[in-house]
Amino acid sequence: MKRFFSVRAPVPLLAALTLLLMWDATGFAKLSLLCAALHEGGHILAFCALTGHFPHVTCSLSGLAMKMDGVRLSLQKENLLLLAGPAANLAAALAAYLLIQHRASYLRYFFACENLCMALFNLLPIGFLDGGRLLSNCFGLMDGVLFRALTLCCCFLLAIFGGVLLRYRGAGFLLSLGFCLMVLALCAKSLRS
């Protein structure tokens, strides 16, 4: 029987999730995880609709990842697959916005904003994100120096924007350091791919 789900490094993953959920007094971490699951769920539903079978999903510390298991899709179908995740987040943000019109709450606002941010972040033209792969599919830039330069430029602008935002909001040293490390990891992964 074929397995459709696997977990990479289950002990560190469970430890990180336990700590995250244990220290989440506001419930925002749970909503963020739900938004990430909705994003990947959009990709999975699109894959099922386009191919007729379920993909292999891997869960790790870096998130959920869908493996296509050698399935070759046309460029148009792959673009639809790439757009399905952000579309799921945008649909969830719209639903939350409509619920806010009926009865507002901080959790609904956060859910709408988190879904919107997740959709926009994944549409950034960074190599391994949905936006980078869409850009590569549309313009054939994946292996070029121009594509890597665009990716690094986008990471640099993200770092500047985040640094200014953190500085403006008076963020602590550890939060600023964590953000810088995240952007450096993003740059390193972009250069490797």
Automatic annotation (TrEMBL):
<keyword id="KW-0472">Membrane</keyword>
<feature type="transmembrane region" description="Helical">
    <location>
        <begin position="145"/>
        <end position="166"/>
    </location>
</feature>
<comment type="similarity">
    <text>Belongs to the peptidase M50B family.</text>
</comment>
<dbReference type="InterPro" id="IPR008915">
    <property type="entry name" value="Peptidase_M50"/>
</dbReference>
<feature type="domain" description="Peptidase M50">
    <location>
        <begin position="102"/>
        <end position="141"/>
    </location>
</feature>
<keyword id="KW-0378">Hydrolase</keyword>
<protein>
    <submittedName>
        <fullName>Site-2 protease family protein</fullName>
    </submittedName>
</protein>
<dbReference type="GO" id="GO:0006508">
    <property type="term" value="P:proteolysis"/>
</dbReference>
<feature type="transmembrane region" description="Helical">
    <location>
        <begin position="106"/>
        <end position="124"/>
    </location>
</feature>
<keyword id="KW-0479">Metal-binding</keyword>
<keyword id="KW-0862">Zinc</keyword>
<keyword id="KW-0812">Transmembrane</keyword>
<feature type="transmembrane region" description="Helical">
    <location>
        <begin position="43"/>
        <end position="68"/>
    </location>
</feature>
<keyword id="KW-0482">Metalloprotease</keyword>
<dbReference type="GO" id="GO:0016020">
    <property type="term" value="C:membrane"/>
</dbReference>
<keyword id="KW-1133">Transmembrane helix</keyword>
<dbReference type="GO" id="GO:0046872">
    <property type="term" value="F:metal ion binding"/>
</dbReference>
<feature type="transmembrane region" description="Helical">
    <location>
        <begin position="80"/>
        <end position="100"/>
    </location>
</feature>
<dbReference type="GO" id="GO:0008237">
    <property type="term" value="F:metallopeptidase activity"/>
</dbReference>
<dbReference type="Pfam" id="PF02163">
    <property type="entry name" value="Peptidase_M50"/>
</dbReference>
<keyword id="KW-0645">Protease</keyword>
<feature type="transmembrane region" description="Helical">
    <location>
        <begin position="172"/>
        <end position="191"/>
    </location>
</feature>
